[in-house]
């Protein structure tokens, strides 16, 4: 899979682990107990994330090699999201509530995996909690900025997802993914809009009209 798609899948993790080959499970990460202030910040983040039912945003993705790509991100919780890259890239990712589909426009191939087997499940579930199957590894509060870093509790070696919020009021502005190879990808949201009506057809996988001839599963 192309590097930029693998990393945004991890981010939209939510989102590198989604289609990465499985490895040995690592021990759950250990960290000092959360302070009262950190717990308060995480409660605010949980409330914010759970209040976001729909979102549409332009995004700019900076890959580990410094190359930038752009596109549009759609979210409709629970269970649905879509990531589309701007031309000439013809790839996209769709979660329809049960499955996450990846379309490789260059190869004209589709692959899929259950949402529940991916880190994307974290942001797509009906009730988001920063505990249990995800572990908070760091909370950084600075004037106007709040960052929360997460790993998958049962396999933290897959990578670290850092959510970056603009604070007062709280708004998700970017995320960073540190993958298992130590590479960092950053995705910045440009003028995200929440609570917007979205066409449900966005969240069904369909082969693009131009690619239907010669389509391979």
Structure description:
There is one protein chain. By secondary structure, the protein is mostly beta strands. The protein has a single domain, classed as Lipoprotein localisation LolA/LolB/LppX (outer membrane lipoprotein receptor (LolB), chain A), CATH 2.50.20.10. Helices cover 14% and strands 40% of the residues. The protein contains three helices and eleven strands; from the N terminus they run ααββββββαβββββ. Strands 6-5-4-3-2-1-11-10-9-8-7 form an eleven-stranded antiparallel β-sheet. Strand 10 and strand 11 form a beta hairpin. The longest helix has 16 residues, at 36-51. The radius of gyration is 17 Å and the shape is globular. Residues 10-28 have low confidence and may be disordered.
Low-confidence stretches: 10-28
Taking all residues together, what is the mean pLDDT? 81
CATH fold-level name: outer membrane lipoprotein receptor (LolB), chain A
Estimate nothing, just give the exact number of structural domains.
Answer: 1
For the secondary structure, the number of strands is 11
Calculate Rg over CA atoms. 17 Å
Which SSEs are present, and which pair or pack?
Elements: H1 3-11, H2 36-51, E1 54-62, E2 68-76, E3 80-85, E4 92-96, E5 99-104, E6 109-114, H3 120-124, E7 134-142, E8 145-152, E9 159-166, E10 171-179, E11 184-194
Antiparallel strand pairs: 1-2, 1-11, 2-3, 3-4, 4-5, 5-6, 7-8, 8-9, 9-10, 10-11
